[in-house]
């Protein structure tokens, strides 16, 4: 019941500078559980924003009255990466040696918050459920660790997709659980759930 809502929510996204993604924002109103109406959209070109500072943006909604006030900060994020199998970060012997030195016992207390990182190689899925009428699915895989989330690309029309991607996460809490979920991409609709596995870090 407000024309001037205040949310005061913060969202963190992993943005990789080699991509030219726009940040797309939609504002919706909800009458009840069944009825929703789109009030407007706006877009932010991340590449045009200055880095290492908080940018205050007032964004007019396209083709609708009203505007959205938000703070956007683009900052370097150490330890998070997506790469192909052939160029995975731990594949280089020199890098492995540097990491071993960084986390050796004598350096344990140099940075209490830097407790390590997790590297996950997502190779493939086998015998997935068919989510489309064609008897196929358009699967992609989402990895979540704490407040970090990364995902693979979509492999279309395939029940045995191969992604062959390497994901690297900084570990903030050794008691976190790695959650790996497979979804079926469904166009503009929410993706369909195809399966999930949870791996406690302490079991690795």
TrEMBL record:
Protein name per UniProt: MCTP2 protein
What membrane topology is annotated for this entry? Answer: Multi-pass membrane protein
- Source species, please? Irena cyanogastra
Q: Domain C2: where?
A: 1-59, 93-204
Compartments where located: Membrane
Any GO MF annotation of the entry: calcium ion binding
Q: Which Gene3D superfamilies match?
A: C2 domain
Into which family does the record put it? Belongs to the MCTP family.
Q: What is the lineage of its organism?
A: Eukaryota, Metazoa, Chordata, Craniata, Vertebrata
User: By its UniProt entry, which InterPro entries does this protein fall under?
Assistant: C2_dom, C2_domain_sf
Coiled-coil features, chain-numbered ranges = none
What GO cellular component is one of the record's annotations? synaptic vesicle membrane
Kindly give the PROSITE patterns that the UniProt entry links to this protein.
C2 (PS50004)
Q: What Gene Ontology terms for biological process does this UniProt record contain?
A: regulation of neurotransmitter secretion
**UniProt keyword terms in alphabetical order:** Calcium, Membrane, Metal-binding, Repeat, Transmembrane, Transmembrane helix
């Amino acid at each position: 019941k407000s024309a001037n809502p205040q949310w005061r929510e913060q969202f963190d996204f992993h943005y990789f500078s080699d991509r030219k993604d726009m940040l797309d924002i939609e504002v919706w109103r909800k009458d009840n559980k069944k009825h929703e109406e789109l009030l407007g959209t706006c877009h932010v070109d991340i590449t045009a924003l200055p880095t290492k500072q908080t940018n205050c943006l007032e964004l007019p909604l396209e083709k609708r009255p009203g505007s959205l006030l938000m703070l956007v900060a683009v900052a370097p994020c150490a330890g998070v990466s997506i790469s192909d199998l052939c160029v995975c970060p731990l594949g280089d012997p020199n890098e492995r040696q540097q990491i071993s030195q960084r986390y050796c016992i004598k350096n344990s207390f140099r940075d209490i918050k830097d407790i390590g990182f997790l590297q996950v190689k997502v190779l493939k899925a086998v015998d997935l459920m068919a989510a489309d009428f064609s008897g196929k699915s358009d699967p992609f895989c989402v990895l979540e660790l704490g407040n970090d989330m990364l995902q693979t690309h979509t492999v279309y029309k395939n029940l045995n997709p191969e992604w062959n991607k390497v994901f690297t996460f900084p570990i903030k809490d050794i008691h976190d659980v790695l959650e790996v979920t497979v979804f079926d991409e469904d166009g503009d609709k929410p993706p369909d759930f195809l399966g999930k596995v949870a791996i406690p870090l302490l079991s690795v």
